[in-house]
Design goal:
Layout: H1 2-12, H2 33-50, H3 54-60, E1 64-69, H4 75-83, E2 86-90, H5 101-113, E3 117-124, H6 136-145, E4 150-154, E5 175-177
Parallel strand pairs: 1-2, 1-3, 3-4, 4-5
Helix pairs in contact: 2-4, 5-6
């Protein structure tokens, strides 16, 4: 029933077919945004750890790093804590308050030099404090360079139809959080 209802919702919002359960997507109903992001961070962590030989998985847990901007909702940082991984806030551009692809690239490379393993990034389509929209295309390009990073888009203030969501199907994200008022 949940799958059918979420497919109906995706169609009602005009989302691309990739959001349907018959595509790469589909979804689940969570009780809160915080609950949803915990599920996604744990899934990303386990996806990364399962790509390693079992003998290495335990030794890298303390090096796993989640990124978000300093404008990202605090639920990403809380999810990292619950998942037992580190969180780092990337400063947003002053004035626009958005996270740029170039800034993400710099931070990923810095973290790797420091011995951390970036595996998750929350980009935002409408930040909580300022409604700023991160440079999703630039960030997506960076994530193509680092395929181990799970790109999550927090689309909590995504406009509703008749706005077109087609651009979302062009981004290599693995999860999107949509808040739909009922």
């Amino acid at each position: 029933m949940e799958t059918v209802v979420l497919d109906w919702l995706a169609k009602a919002l005009g989302l691309p077919d990739t959001f349907l359960s018959t595509g790469h997507g589909g979804g689940v109903i969570q009780g809160s945004a915080s609950e949803a992001i915990v599920v996604v961070v744990v899934a990303a962590r386990d996806r990364y750890l399962s790509s390693l030989p079992a003998s290495e998985a335990d030794s890298v847990r303390g090096k796993l790093l989640v990124f978000g901007s300093d404008q990202t909702h605090s639920c990403t940082q809380k999810a990292a804590m619950i998942a037992g991984v580190k969180f780092r806030a990337i400063p947003a551009e002053k004035g626009t308050w958005r996270l740029s692809g170039e800034r993400v690239r710099e931070e990923v490379l810095n973290a790797k030099r420091e011995g951390f393993i970036p595996f998750f990034l929350t980009a935002t389509l409408g930040t909580t404090p300022t409604c700023a929209v991160d440079d999703l295309c630039g960030i997506a390009e960076v994530c193509k360079e680092f395929p181990e990073i799970w790109l999550h888009i927090d689309a909590a203030v995504l406009p509703y139809p008749p706005y077109s969501y087609d651009f979302l199907s062009l981004l290599p994200f693995r999860s999107v959080l949509l808040i739909v008022p009922v």
